[in-house]
Design a protein that fits this description.
Blueprint: E1 3-7, H1 24-33, E2 43-46, H2 52-55, H3 61-68, E3 78-79, E4 85-86, H4 90-109, E5 115-118, H5 140-152, E6 157-161, H6 168-174, E7 180-187, E8 206-211, H7 216-235, E9 239-244, H8 261-278, E10 283-287, H9 293-312
Parallel strand pairs: 1-2, 1-5, 5-10, 6-7, 6-9, 7-8, 9-10
Antiparallel strand pairs: 3-4
Helix pairs in contact: 1-9, 4-5, 7-8, 8-9
Length: 315
């Protein structure tokens, strides 16, 4: 089997104000990197459009309607907060981003591909149940997790997040459900200010491994090896999601965790190995952050290369 690459051109139509780091060039960098001969075997899927009803599995109706009902003139922006803006194409982009993750889940469950990578924007892991924030409109990965539960009858779903920023939204959505597991390595202190090791969920189902600025590869790998992977194995998920942010790279302008693309490849390999032990290698990865275009392209390629190796090993 190979890896599914799920994307949609509408994700380029989420336009942000000039100078904003979460721009369409990010997605172009990723997709260009994955357009080389090395990645010719990827199963390329066009993301479907999520329905309003599917969004209500995670988000309050006020959040959903605020995004979907926004009326924005061409060339103008609607501000959600200081970091988060919408343009006329943002709602469609957000629906395709959510739809991509659901399609990836469906493809893995139907054995159409071994695992999946969703190259989408806007990102999602900061979006809480009752609030869009932090560049994020809807929580793509959390909605994918609930889709796996509702559409496929799975109960125990895990998300591991190696974006440099803590995924406060995913934690918020998962916190009180013992059958949902969220684990994160992230720089701390840093936006959004959540993610201390003391935040552990209703049943130890949240595992945070905060890292101080400048930590580097050794500390990152130790956090994953000693804290997150053992807890993930103990949880024994039926499906594993990765919130794949690449802004912990040493070249990224928004943080200073000092990782290399080899660290993202290694982390992906480790997560695929746990998935082999617990859930038949069922893995879907969703693009989150990463704001240096060259580092993002190299890191995403390293990540997908490792996913492809994991997919080939799936029976």
């Amino acid at each position: 089997m190979t890896t599914g690459l799920i994307a949609h051109r509408a994700c380029f139509d989420h336009v942000v104000p000039p100078g904003h780091p979460e721009c369409a060039a990010r997605l172009n960098a990723v997709l260009t990197a994955l357009d080389s001969e090395e990645f010719a075997e990827l199963n390329r899927i066009e993301a479907p459009r999520a329905s309003r009803e599917s969004l209500l599995a995670v988000h309050d109706s006020a959040v959903v309607d605020a995004v979907l009902s926004a009326r924005i003139e061409p060339g103008r922006f609607a501000r959600i907060d200081a970091d988060t803006a919408m343009s006329p194409g943002s709602a469609e982009a957000a629906l395709r981003a959510v739809g991509a993750v659901a399609a990836a889940v469906d493809g893995v469950m139907a054995n159409r591909f071994g695992n999946g990578f969703c190259a989408v924007r806007p990102p999602g892991h900061h979006a809480e149940r009752a609030r869009s924030m932090g560049f994020c409109l809807f929580n793509n990965v959390a909605l994918g997790a609930l889709h796996a539960r509702q559409a496929h009858g799975l109960e125990r779903i895990a998300v591991v997040d190696f974006d440099v920023h803590h995924g406060n939204g995913t934690q918020d959505i998962f916190f009180d459900d013992p059958n949902l597991f969220y684990a994160s390595t992230h720089e701390f202190p840093l936006y959004p200010g959540t993610g201390s090791a003391a935040e552990s969920g209703v049943a130890g189902n949240v595992v945070n491994a905060p890292l101080p600025p400048g930590s580097g590869s050794k500390a990152f790998r130790a956090a994953l090896t000693l804290r997150i992977l053992p807890a993930l194995v103990s949880f024994s998920p039926q499906f594993l999601f990765i919130s794949a942010g690449f802004d912990a790279h040493r070249s990224d302008p928004l943080a200073s965790l000092q990782l290399e693309e080899s660290d993202f490849a290694w982390a992906t390999e480790q997560l695929c190995e746990v998935a082999a032990q617990t859930c038949g290698r069922r893995v879907v990865s969703v693009l989150e952050g990463g704001y240096d275009l060259d580092a993002l392209a190299r890191s995403a390629a390293a990540h997908v290369r490792a996913l492809m190796a994991g997919a080939e090993a799936r029976p």
